[in-house]
Amino acid sequence: xxxxxxxxxxxxxxxxxxxxxxxxxxxxxxxxxxxxxxxxxxxxxxxxxxxxxxxxxxxxxxxxxxxxxxxxxxxxxxxxxxxxxxxxxxxxxxxxxxxxxxxxxxxxxxxxxxxxxxxxxxx
Length: 123
Fold this sequence. Notes:
The chain has one domain. It is of the alpha+beta class and 123 residues long. β2 and β3 form a beta hairpin. Strands 1, 2, 3, 4 and 5 form a five-stranded antiparallel β-sheet that branches. Helices cover 17% and strands 47% of the residues.
């Protein structure tokens, strides 16, 4: 019986798992993009919807606000003789261009990757 107990304890110690979550940028609610209207939505309304942009630039008579968020999850599992690793990534970006009066002139957004990971390991 003691031999089985030692074997079981060794097996438990020989199995290792690790998960790593990395985020870049500030998360924002991409579902609110549908509320943006060209020629109508103001800078203040964009600020209220998405928060402070991670980047502001000017180009001629326009101001451009950029929002970006990326989340990566890596998992590694190691058994006595085998090791496996997986990785997933999710990314979303929003770029809004305003005219000289602070009204939305144009905008674009992208979402890519595995959207199921949005709920994994929110730091």
